[in-house]
Amino acid sequence: VYCYGGTNHWLAHAWTVNGFAPLLRELLYQPVYVGMSAGSMIFSRAHAAMVVAFDDQEEVAMLRLEAVGPALPLFEWGVMAHLGASFLPHQTDEWAAASAARLGSPVSFIDDGSALLVRDAADAPEVVSDGHWLRFGEGGELVDSQ
Q1: Are 131 and 81 in contact (CB under 8 A)?
Q2: DSSP 62-101
Q3: Cα separations (Å) of 88 from 11, 56, 66, 70, 113?
Q4: Given its phi and psi angles, is residue 19 left (phi above 0), alpha (psi -120 to 50 degrees) or beta?
């Protein structure tokens, strides 16, 4: 299964309301899932909290979503894609640190040259990267980076 980007809030909402999320849970036990951009961000139990932590209220309002949550709540940690991307100039290391401090859950910020490998949903993801990434703990402290 390959899922590209867009808005993570809409993608999680769409997968939930159209019934794809429960089907995906069954499919993920054998095949490989590759998510890019929003497609990598929709499995965190912290998805709703990320709206406030990442100041996404305007996007949620624009999409007219009454509720926001993960498509499939697989992980306790969150991920934010496109760290340092030129098309999202506000997504700096400083922005990541401030957002992580507000979240209250572990979160990884990855650039477009990085990926997360998840072998077990109960474990922290493994970062595969030639690029730049940051991992923050539950209290917003920086725990690892490259």
Answers
A1: no
A2: HTT-S----SS--BSSEEE--TT-TTSTT--HHHHHHHHH
A3: 19, 14, 26, 23, 15
A4: left
89-135: pLDDT as tens digits: 999 999 999 999 999 999 999 999 999 988 888 888 899 998 999 99
Q: Write the CB contacts of 97 (distance below 8 Å, at least 6 apart in sequence).
A: 134, 136, 140, 142
Q: Hey, what are 135's tokens? A: 């991992």
Model pTM score: 0.80
- Name the token pair of 128: 């595969």
Whether 51 and 68 have beta carbons less than 8 Å apart is answered as yes
